[in-house]
Amino acid sequence: MEVTLAAEKIFSIGPIPVTNTMLTAWLVTLVLIAFAFLSTRKLTPVPNPLQNIAEFAVDTFQDLVASVAGEKTKVFLPIVASFFFFILLGNYFGLLPGIGTIGFNRIEEGHRVFVPLFRSMNSDLNTTLALALVSVVITHYLAVKYLGIKDYIGKFLSLHPIFLFVGLLELIGEFTKILSLSFRLFGNIFAGEVLLSTASSKIFAFIVPIPFYFLELLVGFVQALIFAMLTLVFMVILTEKHASEH
Amino acid sequence: MGVIQSFGIQPVLLLAQIVNFLIIFFLLKKFFYAPIVKMLEDRRARIEESLKNADVIENRLEETDVKVAKALEEARANAQVVMQDAKAEARRIVDEATEEGHKITESAITEARSQIELERLKMQKELQGETATIAGVLLKKVLGRTMSSKEKQELTKTSISQITKQVS
Predict the structure, then answer these.
(1) CA-CA 20 to 30 A from B3: which of A210, A222, B62, B78?
(2) A153 in a domain, yes or no?
(3) How far apart are CA B12 and CA B9, in angstroms?
């Protein structure tokens, strides 16, 4: 069994190809929305178990965001928390038995190729790049909203030659943000997939993969947290008023 | 371009993922974070209010305790006064009753005495009469033989008067 870099196409809906990572993303979306619906269906002052979990998750994340964002917490929380929960659930979903192992064989270029039906969604660069793009675009949107268009442009362009240079560097930095966010997440999860599929192959299939699963549980959490926290920090930095007086 | 292809990047897939995430984001924002954050804030406010109320209640309780203690003290003092009054009244009533009793007893005794006196006088008179008769008869019988009728008469008279004197 080999893990390819690109996600495998399962079927198409008209012109839109549906890959196995896409299927997983939809499944994760469904689970997330279902949980959100079920846990907030009947909100009561004395919470039921599901509401309790939701409240714990939101409250914990709110405290975390508030410690960095301060009064902007209300705006930043939904964005950052959505990234975190979506990525975390996606990462953990990829560790479930059957994901990456249940599939079918297909003949491609004369070879029999195994195509898994589901594959960890963040092991596809399309997903992580999409998340990174959304993260950076929302960050810039909020910067314009908080600073106004003039101050926003002033962050990158200046008549002062040194600041102009710094501004240009920052502009390049904004693009590298997309790459670093997407490739970090993709790289970690893809490496995990490769690691697990190697550890689980043939003779090593019993007991040996267990420590790697624990490792992947940790990686899945840490990567989700890193993505969310970096997004948060970028937002805070970019929406802060620039001290251009000096 | 080769790199992009080998990673399987396709604009359609990218867009699909972006749309997917935006759907998650807006749905969660509206139906998950907003109500839960509101619920958390409401609960925090409610707890704060409850704590404040608890303080107020505690203060009131303390005030009430003080009031109750004061009222009890007053009641005790009042009771003391009432008890003393009652004791005095009781003593007075007992004294009066005792005095009345004494009076009634005394008057009863006095009456009884006078009654007894009357009775005694009556008895005495009756006794005198009877004694005189008996003495007369007795003397007649004893002295009848040896004395003259004149002596008899005189002796009888003196005897009777003597006896009468003695009896009375």
Answers:
(1) A222
(2) yes
(3) 9
**What radius of gyration do chain A's Cα atoms show?**
21
Q: What is the dihedral of CA A141, A243, A181, A18, to 10 degrees?
A: 10
Would you mind telling me the total number of residues written for chain A in this entry? 246
Q: Inspect the interface and report whether the beta carbons of B10 and A17 lie closer than 8 Å.
A: yes
Give residue A31's region: left, alpha or beta (phi > 0; psi -120 to 50). Answer: alpha
A220 within a domain of the structure (yes/no): yes
Q: Residue A3 falls within a domain, yes or no?
A: no
Say if CB A180 and CB A149 are below 8 A apart.
no
Name the pTM for this structure: 0.74
Cα–Cα distance, B51 to A192 (Å, whole number): 50
Q: How far is CA B73 from CA A128, A218, B64, B70, B76, in A?
A: 80, 70, 14, 5, 5
Interface of A with B in 138-177 (CB under 8 A): none
Q: Which residues of B touch A16 (CB under 8 A)?
A: 12, 16
Residue A107 maps to a domain: yes
Chain A from 9 to 28: CB within 8 A of any B CB: 15-17, 19, 22, 25-26
Q: Could you report the per-residue pLDDT of A4-27, keeping only the tens digit for each?
A: 888 888 888 888 888 999 999 999
**pLDDT-derived band at B163, boundaries 50, 70, 90:** confident
The boundaries of the domain holding residue A209 are 9-239
Strands A103-108 vs A16-19: parallel, antiparallel or unpaired: unpaired
Q: What percent of chain A has pLDDT over 90?
A: 58
pLDDT, residue A245, reads: 46
How many structural domains are present in chain A? Answer: 1
CA-to-CA distance for A119 and B119, rounded, in angstroms? 142
CA-to-CA distance for A246 and A239, rounded, in angstroms? 19
pLDDT per position as a tens digit, A86-117: 999 999 999 998 888 888 888 878 888 888 88
Q: Give the integer Cα–Cα distance in Å for B16 and A16.
A: 9
